[in-house]
Amino acid sequence: MATIPADELRIIERFGPHRSAVDAVRQSTSAEPERLVKTHCCFCGQQCGVQLKVRGNEVIGFEPWEEFPFNRGMLCPKGVKRYLQGAHPDRLLTALQRDPSSAHGFSPLAYGDAIARAAAGIGRIQQAYGPASIALLSGASLTTEKTYLMGKFARVCLRTPYIDYNGRLCMVSAGAANKKAFGIDRTTSPWSDMIGTGVIWVAGSNVAECSPITTNYLWQAREQGAKIIVQDPRITPVARTCDLYLPVRPGRDAALFAGVLHLLIERGWIDREFIEAHTVGFDEVAEYCRQWTPARTAAVTGVPERSLQQASELWGTAASSFMLHARGIEHHSNGVQNALGAINLVLATGRIGTPRSGYGTITGQANGQGGREHGQKCDQLPGWRDIANPEHRRHIAGIWGIDEADLPGAGVDAYELFRKIDAGEIKALLSICFNPKVSLPDSGLVSRALEKLEFYVAIDFFLNETARHADLVLPGSLQEEDEGTVTQVEGRVIRINKAIDPPGEARQDWRIVQDLAAALGRPHGFTFTGPRDIFDELRRASKGGVADYSGITYEKVETRMGVFWPCYSEDPRTGRPLDHGGTPRLFERGSYNPIARGQGPFYFPDGKARFNLAEHRPAVDDAGEEYPLFLTTGRVVSQFLSGTQTRRIDPLVRQYPEPRMEMHPRLAAKLGIADGDWAEAETRRGMIALRAMVVTTIRPDTIFIPYHWPGEKSVNRLTVAAQDPISRIPQYKVCGCRVRKAAGPPAYAAILEPQQ
Ligand SMILES: Nc1nc2c(c(=O)[nH]1)N[C@H]1C(S)=C(S)[C@@H](COP(=O)(O)OP(=O)(O)OC[C@H]3O[C@@H](n4cnc5c(=O)[nH]c(N)nc54)[C@H](O)[C@@H]3O)O[C@H]1N2
Ligand SMILES: Nc1nc2c(c(=O)[nH]1)N[C@H]1C(S)=C(S)[C@@H](COP(=O)(O)OP(=O)(O)OC[C@H]3O[C@@H](n4cnc5c(=O)[nH]c(N)nc54)[C@H](O)[C@@H]3O)O[C@H]1N2
Ligand code: SF4
Ligand SMILES: [Mo]
Q1: For a pocket test of ligand 1, which of 168, 210, 369 has the largest count of ligand atoms closer than 8 A to its C-beta?
Q2: Structural domain contains residue 621
Q3: Total domains, the chain
Q4: pLDDT tens per residue across span 126-177
C-alpha cells in the first residue's frame, strides 16, 4: 500500500464531501431569500439534493437539504459554487446570428425572428437534400423530458435518423455491457447497500474528484470493515488510503480481470451453485481465462503477481462485495470488453441482488442514466427500446400517432456524424447541450467539419466553443429555470424544480424545440403544455419497455424523494392497476420481472444472467517505440466537462486555473523537467504545451492531462478517434505519446485569457 504524504491527506480532505464549505457559504450570503426551492445540483450524476435560495428572479445562494437521502446535505466544491453561474455576464439573453462585421462575430436577433430563420434554414436544406441531410446532437445534462422530446423531434418532426448524444462519449460502454450481461442497464442497488459490505472494488474511477459524495459511502463502508481495492494508473485520492492498489497500465483492464478470474477459478473461490442456477456462458469464459496466468497477466498489465493474488483473495473470500467502475475502464476501444470483465468477476462469485452486494457503473453527467434510456441514442426508442425491432417501432409509432413506416431507422454515433458532415453527406446541424469541439477526440476533424456545414443552429445558455461556428444561437435555459426529472447514479428518478424564469429572451429548451416545430409547419406531437405533459407521454411510451417508467408520477417522486425504475403502472403478473413503489434493488432472488416472467431475476426470457467473453485487445495507437509513453485524460474536481459552465465560476477556476501535465518524478528527471516547467506532449495527431505537475501518484510510464479547456489547452487535439466496435465510445484513456521539455512558454501563454 502507498504511504500518504501529509499534504496529500489534506487534498483528500478537500476533495471529500464538503460540509464545511456548505456552512461557509451559508454564512457568507447575507441577502435574505424570499423562497427556498428544493432541487438538485446541475452537474454530475450523483445529483445531490440542495435548496436554492431565491430572491426575485435570482438564485442568490443555497441551503443544504439535509433530508435528501443520497447526500444528506453534503456537496462538493462544484455544488457549493454552482449558483454563481446564472449571473455571469456571458449568459445568453437574446438569440444571436453570425455576423462577421461584429467584433464578437455575432449580433443579437429578436427571438421570434431567430426561430423563423432557423426553421427557414432547416426547411431549405431538407428541401434541397432530403430529410436525412440534417443531424441532431443532444445531451445528457438535459432532463429526461427534454431528452425524450429531442428523440421524438428528430424522428417525427425532422424525419431524420441522425440523432445522437454526448453520452456516446460517456455511458455507452457500460450500457452495452449491462444489456449484454443482465438485460437491463442500471446500477443494481442504492448506494446505502454498500455500508456493511465486505469489499469494494473501484476500477477506473477517480471517485473522490468525480463522484465526491460516493466517497462518503466508501468511507462509511470502510468504517464498517470493508476492504477497498483500486485499479487505476494513478494513485487517486481514494487509492491513497485503500487496502490494495492495482497500478494497471492504461488499456489493460480486460487482461487484469481475466487474470483475477483465472485465480478465482483455480482457488475455488467461485459460487458454482449460483453460476449453475442463474447464469449461462461460464465455461467459455473460464476457458478463455486459462491463458491469463498470473505471470502473463502481470507482464501485460504491469500489476505485480503478488497484487493479483491479493486481489483474488480479497474478492474471492469476501462474504459480500460491490464492484464499481467508471470511464477509466470504459473509455477504450475495448471498453465494452473491459466492463464485461468486471461483470464476470461479479457473476462468478454470485454476489449480486442481495442487500450487501451489488454492481454499478458510476454515471457521469447529471442525467447520464435517464438520458440514455428514452430515445436520443441513434439506435434507440423510449423505454430502452430498439429502433430496429418491428414490435418496438409499432408501439412507439402508436404513441406518437404516426405510421410505423414513417419512423426512420437507426442513425450513427456522434463521432460518425462528424465524419459524415466532413464528407458532405450531412449539411445541417442542430445541437443542444453538447460541446463537441472540446469534448470529441482528435478534434481537428470536428473543427474542420463544423466549417463545412451549410446551416448550423445551437441551443445553449452560453456561447460554447462549438456554438461559435453556428449561424444561429438560440438562448436556452439553465437547469434552475425549468422543471422536470432526471435519473441519478443509483437509478433513482428525482425532481428538478424550477426556481426562476429564464431571463431576457431566453426560453426553456422544450419551448424552443416546440417553437421550431411550429415554425416548420409540423406541430403534430409538439404541443405539450409543459414538462409534466411530456412526462405523461414518456410514461406511456416507456410502458412495457425494459426502462419502464409507467408507474412514476411527479407526485410520487416528490413525496418519496425519488423512485427507482422500473416502476410499473400495472402488476406485471396480473395486469391489474398497481401503486408500485419502484425497484431499489435489482435481481433479488425470487423477484419477478415482465421479461423473465418468473423464470429468474435477470432481464432475459430465461431469467438468467450472461457471462460474456471479455477479451483483452491491444489499444489502437498504443505506446510503442516512437511514442513510448501512455497519455491518459480525465478530470479534476473543480472543473466540469468541456468547462463551459465551470470555467465561468471564479472560485472553481482559482482552484485549478490551467490544465497541467501530471508526470512521475522519475520520468520528469529523465526528461530534465522540474515541477512547473513548460513541457510538450506530442501524439500522432498534435502537440500540447503545458506546465508539468510532478507527482508521485502516477505510473512513471504514463502522463495525465485533464480535458476541460478549449483551443491550445485542449488535450483532445491529441487523443485518438479509435472507437469501441460495439458501443462506439472513443478511446480517451490511452494513446502513445512522447514528452520533452519546452524551450520556453508557448505563444498562447502570453495572451491573457478572460476567465470570468
Ligand atoms: N469534477 C468533475 N466531476 C465529474 C465530471 C467532471 O468533468 N468533473 N464529469 C462527470 C462525468 S460526465 C463523468 S463521465 C465522470 C467520470 O468519472 P471518472 O471516470 O471517475 O473520471 P475520469 O477522470 O474520466 O477517469 C477516471 C480514472 O480513470 C483512470 N484511468 C485512466 N486510464 C485508465 C485505464 O486504462 N484503466 C483504468 N483502470 N483506469 C484508467 C484515470 O487515472 C482516472 O483516475 O465524472 C463526472 N463527475
Ligand atoms: N479527452 C477526453 N475527452 C472527453 C472525456 C475524457 O475523459 N477525456 N470525457 C468525455 C465525457 S465522459 C463526456 S460526458 C463528454 C462531455 O462533453 P460535452 O457534453 O460536450 O460537454 P459539456 O461541457 O457538458 O457541454 C454541454 C454544453 O451544454 C450546455 N448545457 C448544459 N446544460 C444544459 C441545459 O440544460 N440546456 C441547454 N440548452 N444547454 C445545456 C453547457 O452550457 C455546455 O455548453 O466529454 C467527453 N470528452
Ligand atoms: S457536482 Fe456532483 S457530487 Fe458535486 S454537488 Fe453536484 S451532484 Fe453532488
Ligand atoms: Mo461523462
Answers
A1: 210
A2: no
A3: 4
A4: 999 999 999 999 999 999 999 999 999 999 999 999 999 999 999 999 999 9
Q: Whose CA is nearest to atom 41 of ligand 2?
A: 433
pLDDT at residue 751, rounded to an integer = 67
In a domain, 613, yes or no: no
Mean pLDDT of the region 542-551: 98
Residue 690 has a pLDDT of 98
Contacts of 193 (CB under 8 A, 6+ apart): 322, 355, 356, 357, 358, 585
For residue 482, the model assigns a pLDDT of: 98
Kindly state if the Cβ of 138 falls inside 6 Å of ligand 2.
no
Q: How far is CA 487 from CA 39, 172, 187, 346, in A?
A: 13, 16, 11, 24
Looking at the structure, tell me whether residues 686 and 703 fall in a common domain.
yes
Q: Which of 486, 520, 542 is the last residue of a domain?
A: 542
218 lies in the same domain as 299: yes
- Looking at all shown ligands, the one closest to residue 330's CA atom is 1
- Please work out whether the CB of residue 256 comes within 6 Å of at least one atom of ligand 1: no
Of the residues 433, 690, 724, which should be mutated to test ligand 2's pocket, given the most ligand atoms within 8 Å of the CB?
433
Residues found in the chain: 756
Q: What's phi and psi for 434, nearest 5 deg?
A: -160, 140
* pLDDT tens for each residue of 220-233: 999 999 999 999 99
Region 326-340: mean pLDDT is: 98
> 454: which 3 cell numbers?
451549410
Domain match, 240 and 356 both? yes
Cα separation, 382 vs 375, in Å, equals 5
Query: For residues 299 and 605, is the Cβ–Cβ distance under 8 A?
Result: no
In a domain, 218, yes or no: yes
Ligand 1 binding pocket includes 635 (Cβ within 6 Å): yes
Question: What is the Å distance from ligand 3's center to 203 Cα?
Answer: 20
Answer yes or no: do 305 and 188 share one domain. Answer: yes
User: What digits encode the pLDDT tens for the residues 337-355?
Assistant: 999 999 999 999 999 999 9
Indicate if ligand 2 lies below 6 Å from the C-beta of 479.
yes
Helix (H) or strand (E) holding 37: strand 35-40
Give the domain CATH number at 721: 2.40.40.20
Whether ligand 2 lies within 6 angstroms of the CB of 415 is answered as no
Ligand 1 centre and the CA of 610: distance in Å? 27
Average pLDDT over residues 222-245: 97
474-499 tens-digit pLDDT: 999 999 999 999 999 999 999 999 99
Closest ligand 1 atom to 78 CA: 1
Candidates 46, 49, 368; CA nearest to 216 is: 46
Q: Residue 575 domain-assigned? A: no
- Residue 756 pLDDT level (bands cut at 50, 70, 90): very low
Q: In terms of domains, do 410 and 372 share one?
A: yes
Atom of ligand 3 nearest to the CA of 366: 7
Q: How far is the CA of 70 from the centre of ligand 4 (A)?
A: 20
pLDDT value of residue 538: 98
What's the pLDDT at 749? 87
What CATH number is associated with residue 32?
Answer: 2.20.25.90
**pLDDT tens string 38-84:** 999 999 999 999 999 999 999 999 999 999 999 999 999 999 998 88
**Domain membership of residue 34 as a residue range:** 6-87
Average predicted confidence (pLDDT) for the chain: 94
Do 471 and 404 have their domain in common? yes
Q: Are residues 444 and 297 in the same domain?
A: no
Write the secondary structure of 631-678 as one string of H (helix), E (strand) and C (coil). Answer: EEEECCCCCCCCCCCHHHCHHHHHHCCCCEEEECHHHHHHHCCCCCCE
CB of residue 715 inside a 6 A radius of ligand 2: yes
**3-class secondary-structure state, position 23:** helix
Shortest-distance ligand to the CA of residue 637: 1
**Residue 29, pLDDT score:** 52
Is residue 48 within 6 Å of ligand 3 at its C-beta? Answer: yes
What is the sign of the dihedral through the CA atoms of 637, 643, 646 and 649? Answer: positive
Of residues 213, 238, 209, 223, the one with CA closest to residue 72: 213
Ligand 2 atom closest to Cα of residue 715: 1
- Residues 398 and 262 placed together within one structural domain of the fold: no
Which residue's CA is the closest to the ligand 3 atom numbered 6? 79
